[in-house]
Every structure is written in C-alpha cells, then in structure tokens.
Amino acid sequence: MEKVSEKLVEIGSSFEQAYKPVLDFHGWRVAMLRHFEVVSPKLFHRVERHNDTNEVFILTTGFADLIVCKGDGGPEEPAVIPMVHNVAYNVRQAVWHHVLMSTDAHIILFERSETGPENSDYAELPSPLIDSLKARLSEGVRS
Questions:
Q1: Across-strand partners of 107?
Q2: CA distances from 84 to 8, 55, 66, 69 (A)
Q3: Hey, what domains does the chain have and what are their CATH numbers?
Q4: I need a surface site. Which of 48, 51, 66, 112 has the fewest CB within 10 A?
C-alpha cells in the first residue's frame, strides 16, 4: 500500500473482540465493535441511553439485533430490530438501546466524542423481560 501523509487521510482500524474507538475528530468518534461479553446474547442484562448524543450503528459482517425501548424514566416496550448489512441505524439521543451480536459480527458506530458513563444511563432488565427478548432475537444472533 502506498504511504500517504496523515495530513491527507487518517486511517483507523481495529480487529479486537471489543468496542474500540479508532477515529476522533471535530467532536465525533468512530468506533469498531466486535463480539465480546457485553454484546453476547447469553450475558444480556441491561440497556443504556446516551443523554447528549445520537449513536449510529452499521453492521458490516455477521448478524446483530438492535434492541430499542421507549421510556423517559426507565425502559419500556422493547422492540427487537434485526440489523441488515450496510444500513445505518440512528438511535436517537436518550433512547434506551443495546445491540446483541453473533460471534463473527462487526459493527461500525458513530457517536459524540465525549460519550461515556458520565452522560449515559444504564438500566438492568428483569429476568422475565430478558427471557422474552432473547426468544425474539433473530436466528443468526441466537446461534
């Protein structure tokens, strides 16, 4: 590959089985997400919401389901959205959500740079709701 100055193009990549920011510019972060315990259907137990930003997910490989919930206080009425490759899913600011992935899945995500625990909320889900959601996951995520 031809060497190009970082003044012209910045290249970010990650092949870790984790969430890994790879680019950060003008207040925005691009991260790579691959299967690890937080996105494992077997260990699913909570949803989160970001109070200061939207978050965009793009599935590029494998299978993933996006869980979104209504609710100003706590999460209510969860929906399971089977993600389609190369489609952008914009989870709006302050919407409860979580993504569950197959072991071979890869997601690119975009969010504000300052997104973190200090401006996000987390809600543990009751066991019966978790069981109900797991039963609604797409086959590729459940396997």
A1: 33, 59
A2: 32, 17, 10, 19
A3: 19-142 (2.60.120.10)
A4: 51
143 SS3 class: coil
What does the block give as tokens for 116?
């973190």
pLDDT tens-digit series, residues 104-115: 999 999 999 999
**What is the Cα–Cα distance from 141 to 143, expressed in whole angstroms?**
6
Give all strands (DSSP E) within the chain, no chain letters. Answer: 19-25, 28-34, 46-50, 55-61, 64-70, 76-82, 88-91, 96-101, 106-112, 120-124
| Full-model pTM | 0.90
> What are 1-38's pLDDT values in tens digits?
688 888 888 888 888 888 999 999 999 999 999 999 99
Question: Token pair for residue 34?
Answer: 């691959």
Q: Please report where in the chains the tokens 């959500």 appear, as a residue.
A: 97
pLDDT, tens digit, 9 for 90 and up, residues 64-97: 999 999 988 899 999 999 999 999 999 999 999 9
Residue where the block lists tokens 């709701």: 129
Cα–Cα distances (Å) from 58 to 3, 27, 33, 71, 123, in that order, read: 28, 19, 10, 24, 24
